[in-house]
């Protein structure tokens, strides 16, 4: 699994002009699932992301986690994180999970974070979405479960 994690002061996602997910202070997570991912990848990525100390303390040092600041999470599925652009000019997405697996893992990921006590909003799987955010910092972190989990 891959996640582009952005610290935000606010973020929202719209589908067909309707706001379907909206958060204040927290993180926007663009989440991609690969064909090779397991539930071990999912929990490792979610735990790492939730524990990242990317929020500033009173000394303006990135020393606080999402839980420390009472932050919210907006998770948006994004298969394009598995774009392979090595050949030609049109990306290949052969490493991305089939939609059925990707949706199941996306839902498990969201439920896992909710069970950990986080307020989680989402986009809508397999729809054209408009994502709006105010990146706070800016802080953007790239996580890949292949680097977190020993296969």
Short description:
This protein is of the alpha/beta class and 151 residues long. The chain has helices at 39-51, 66-69, 99-115, 145-148; strands at residues 2-15, 18-23, 26-32, 55-56, 62-64, 72-77, 120-122, 130-144. Strands 1, 2, 3, 6, 7 and 8 form a 6-stranded mixed β-sheet that branches.
Which overall shape is indicated by the principal axes computed on the Cα atoms?
A: globular
Low-confidence stretches: none
Radius of gyration: 15 Å
Strand content: 35-45%
Tell me the number of helical segments per DSSP (H or I, 4 or more residues long). 4
Based on DSSP secondary structure assignment, what is the total number of beta strands?
8
CATH superfamily: D-tyrosyl-tRNA(Tyr) deacylase
Task: Record keyword descriptors for this entry.
D-tyrosyl-trna(Tyr) Deacylase, Chain: A, globular, two-stranded antiparallel sheet, 151 residues, alpha/beta
Layout of secondary structure:
Blueprint: E1 2-15, E2 18-23, E3 26-32, H1 39-51, E4 55-56, E5 62-64, H2 66-69, E6 72-77, H3 99-115, E7 120-122, E8 130-144, H4 145-148
Parallel strand pairs: 3-6, 6-7
Antiparallel strand pairs: 1-2, 1-3, 1-8, 4-5
Helix pairs in contact: 1-3
